[in-house]
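Exercise (ungraded).
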Amino acid sequence: MAAQSANPSDWDDVRLHVVTGKGGTGKTTVAASLALALAATGKTVLLCEVEGRQGIAQLFDVPPLPYQERRIASGPQDGGDVYALAIDPESALLEYLAMYYRLGRAGKALDRFGVIDFATTVAPGVRDVLLTGKVYEAVNRNRRSKHARHYDAVVLDAPPTGRISQFLNVNNELAGLAKVGPIRTQADTVTTLLRSPRTAVHLVTVLEDMPVQETADGIDELRAAQLPVGGVIVNLVRSNALDDQARDRALSGDLPRELIEADLVAAGVDSSRQVVDGLLSEGREHAERRALEDEQRKRIGKLDAPVYELPRLPDGIDLGGLYELAAELCEQGMA
Amino acid sequence: MSSTARSGRSARVGPLAAKPDRTPVLAVDALLDDPGTHIIVCCGSGGVGKTTTSAALALRAAERGRKVVVLTIDPARRLAQAMGIEALDNVPRPVPGVHERGTGSLDAMMLDMKRTFDEVVESQATPEKAAQILANPFYQALSSSFAGTQEYMAMEKLGQLHRDALRTGRWDLIVVDTPPSRSALDFLDAPERLSSFLDGRFIRLMLAPAKGPARLMTAGFGVVTNALTKILGAHVLRDMQTFVAAFDTLFGGFRARAQKTFELLQAPGTAFLVVAAPEPDALREAAYFVERLNADRMPLAGLVVNRASRVPVGSMSGDQAMAAAERLAGRTDPDGSSTITAGLLRLHAERTRIVARESRLRQRFAAAHPAVPTAVMPALSTDVHDLDGLRLVGELLAS
């Protein structure tokens, strides 16, 4: 039986989940967790990457992904499945040409003259049209599509926040360049999907000044470009080991030293001066960090987007960790 | 991507058999003080603190007596304000508030990629031709959004600063931050990618109809232009041809400059610092970069590992702390302290685990690259957004 989620999620109408974030915030980890979370509700999900980093293969500990949809995770019994695809612009271009132009000889000539290389690396905007075009194709398949798998949701591990509006705003990028013509038509179709309520652009951040600033700027840019802003996912959140009151006391150097020492004795562990000093200074550092994080949390609260929080896993991210984060996202209503 | 990059990714380079016993320590002050160090390039994947590291090194070098200019790419707003470079004018400005010692000084600038490109065009072409190029839609798109332009222009700017330094003696050390690339290798590949494009058959193809009579075209060319017209539309092709024709005379200059900058990076006065965070992805990128620098015979000074968790004080193990926290949780708590103590013990246990994991990751890197001197920079509990913050980072890097 499919593990259907009892509660409707916040993004039930969304088919395309674009996940962006500043470098180092865990964008790929969050995209993968979201794909798992959606699959956990019984959906068939495609997880795509477009930057040639093979981040998905590394996370799931599978061989490098080809330009081909591969199943990388599935639920117990007949739960959902996660497929993955690494989209590279060269393959997308050749596929596009084969699909629309049946370019046999010309296709080879294009390659010989360095045109493929040119179109995918140098020509401004074309690369992004090709990458988003392939995503569009995967989203737009329906149950009647022949020879192609239908997906209930597509999750895109997208370029970082600093480049996301440019990446998604393919129309604009081409504007000065191609005012008419087939590539322009393709860009227009893709833009229609990206601006529709079937798309949500989620932003991953951590509770630090610069990533939060970038998230705020990114949201402004997305809104200006009429691209639908999804949720803000706060990643790597520190634990709540000390409550508010205890953190206040730690900040003012007011933790009950003698009582803590007595507790350590009672618990039967080392209660030497050095240990107590260490615990107290770790407590203060934690409280300082948390105070800064709370400021950032307030800024995030003002961004007018649903917020989800994922914990920092002390042992890092492995497959088990991904499942754990996916469960968090389900619980918080993201999937 | 160039063939070097491809082959760089295909085989790992390392000692093949090594134990991660002793990592040599990166002597930051010795590097900064060495009058033979003229260029320091900070590279690494996005989000590892390259900008802060390069600014901190530049400040420290200046306060130790070097005449420094730092080229930053995308600093946090408050840091840019603190350094007096929030105005994007593509010119180095003195940083206010530097404790100058002797001849030391610090200038800073933020890279404006489009303006750098425009300036190159203006310096290479006649005014009429430059105006024609700058107005071309294809040039405008290329100069503001080509994925490699930022990397290329950072290199270009570095070359300019170096020439200025030689000519005027205003600086004896240039510190460069690199763009937040998809991968750290982009920085090294961009110039080659751009010049191979400028050199390539595609350009000759574009030039043919603009330069000479159409009858010179080969059959293959006809097929290609037809296909391009179909895909891009005829006027895009026209714009590209105009651009290429106008740019034609500049290509040689661009290639020569890219080649020069590449040679500059290989020169003994250059020091590459690979910056990483103690995370698998960042260290993997760092490893690729180290291997690539070796392959291209570029001088690697060392690895900076930022944001390392601080080693907990005391000898209590994580397991002991966790067990003690459990025991306290089951206790009646008349004075309310045992919740706090249990919390502190949990924090300690968590930190022990994080530190153990990070040091495992660093050791793996060290086993693969035992000769790379390393500086470990502890995570700060506050953000760096002023000169005092940068000074602290510099001190920690050097200690």
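Further reading is listed at the end of the chapter. For now, observe: Chain B has a mean pLDDT of 83. Strands of chain B lie at 39-43, 67-72, 93-94, 105-110, 173-177, 270-276, 300-308, 374-378.
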